Amino acid sequence: MNIAFVLLTHNPSEPAGIERSVASLADGLRELGHHAVIVAAGPATGADGPHLLRLDSLTLPRPIVYDEALNLLADPEPVCREVRRLLREHDVDLVCWVDAVVGLGYLAPAPPGTRTALMVHFLRTDERMLESLAHRPDAVLTVSDFLTDEARRAGLDTEGWLSLPNALPRQGTATPEAERERLRRGGPVRTLARADPQKGISELLRAFPHDLGRPVDIVLASAGFEFRTGMQDRVIAECRALAASLPDVSILPALPWHEVQPFLAGAAVAVLPSILPETFGNVAAEALSVGTPVVGYGLGHLPTLTGAAGRMLDLVDGPERLWRATAELLEDPDAYHAAARQAPLQVAEHTPARIAEAFLRATGL
After folding, report:
1. Which band of pLDDT confidence, cut at 50, 70 and 90, is reported for residue 173?
2. What is the per-residue pLDDT for 43?
3. Taking the alpha carbons of 259, 356, 295, 17 in that order, is the dihedral positive or negative?
4. What is the pLDDT of residues 309-348, one digit of tens each?
5. pLDDT at residue 365 above 80?
6. CATH no. for 177-346
7. Which CATH number fits domain 2-167+350-362: 3.40.50.720, 3.30.499.10, 3.40.50.2000, 3.40.50.300?
């Protein structure tokens, strides 16, 4: 089968969950012997591979304010014409609109006879989402039952929608138990986040306990999009200023996708302080895949994803309680190693090939 994903904002190693999950799914489809491509706006980068098709008719600034994509599509016909041409040239059997706007779901420029799917990675009930659904895609795929339930509660007709979890970039290798014990005793606490206030990094830093006694490594990265002009620069500046006065706290730059799982494998615990619900939780899944327990707020899909492989707290408990829960888990060898052993089991089915198989079933291919 020939399958295309349309995501205008896609770039290789983009520090964003949707881009990462789509790339992993496409890898899984190719592993199964299918042809999978991603259609994205320009400009091209040196890391583009043969499966990334760049549009000549649309170039995005970096970063783009998310809602401004509509302004760049004020005359959508050139983009629609080029997308249809690319889909015909690659003899695409199924095209996935990865979002209502930056995935072109509201325009749905598919050649006649091509199967279509709309992917939903976060809740939206705006006009563009309604237009996307009005095109009657052959499948609507969300990333979790939590998100499907949220859409239904928001008034959308979710009958027939299916949940398709995100795929890991690669199957993780759990850290051996002896190394895991060394990490428990003195290894770093780590996390990764896009530079967005809702990720809760600044709140976590303000609540930092000076008696933690171990390093804290935070990868904070700017994506190719943001929700307000200058938002990412402000978040990074604020977090760097907070970290400068804290012992053993480092704010690190973005990592390539293939380095994320090894980075998390070297953590004693992965702390996820997002203050809004995660509809899936890519960072948690990648930490779990390498046997690293997760501590975070029990919002969105995270409690289901993490299970007994960490600690989930109420948001009202605040970031101070996140730090205490982290310390308590690290100080309890039996509980810690039980969580570490459970962690890979939580995401054992999230390999690219297995998620690709589920995707093919969900889309009727």
Report:
1. confident
2. 95
3. positive
4. 999 999 999 999 999 999 999 999 999 999 999 999 999 9
5. no
6. 3.40.50.2000
7. 3.40.50.2000
